[in-house]
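tool=predict chain=A
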Amino acid sequence: MRVVKTNRFVPQILSGLLVLGASNLGLGALAQEYPSVVGLIPQGGSQATSVQTRTEAAGPEASPEATGQAEARLVLSLSERRVRLYRGAIEVVSYPVAVGKPSWETPTGEFQVYQKVVNPTWRHPWNGSLVPPGPDNPLGDRWVGFLDRGQEAFGFHGTTNEALIGEAVSHGCVRMKNADVTALFEQIEVGTPVVVQP
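tool=predict ok
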């Protein structure tokens, strides 16, 4: 989905909640019935911390790939509608996704994760009402931003309609099954490279 932002880099208090990263950080509508922008507020959530990969004792000549310490990298194929997590040259896991629909395509290119939010709160674009974390939140349980264009941004997130995974239906963001985006969230960090291919 797209994120529309105003007053960039100026944190403000909105209804007693600190808007993270930029004031009025908005996420383009996720649910089909909300075709406009929404706000992302980490209500009761937290930024992710680094996840250390546990490995068995390895010899001094073990490669980073063998120890699980190779740099993580995400490769999103829009045509296949899959995102793959690599550590070095090794594919660790892949997940099915929903991508941007015509006229709202997911941008292609090389990016990096710039933000991770646990339990985001969704703000309705028209009436300003807040949808707290939970089963009715169209963002799901996780937000992973990978492209910030100043007035809009794109990322991976959960969804309330997992039946649409595999389709081109979003407003530019990458929808994932909630369990999948939660698992992915734990395996990457802010700064992880993201390559989006046609």
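The domain at 13-45+70-197 is CATH 2.40.440.10 (L,D-transpeptidase catalytic domain-like). Helices lie at 64-67, 178-187.
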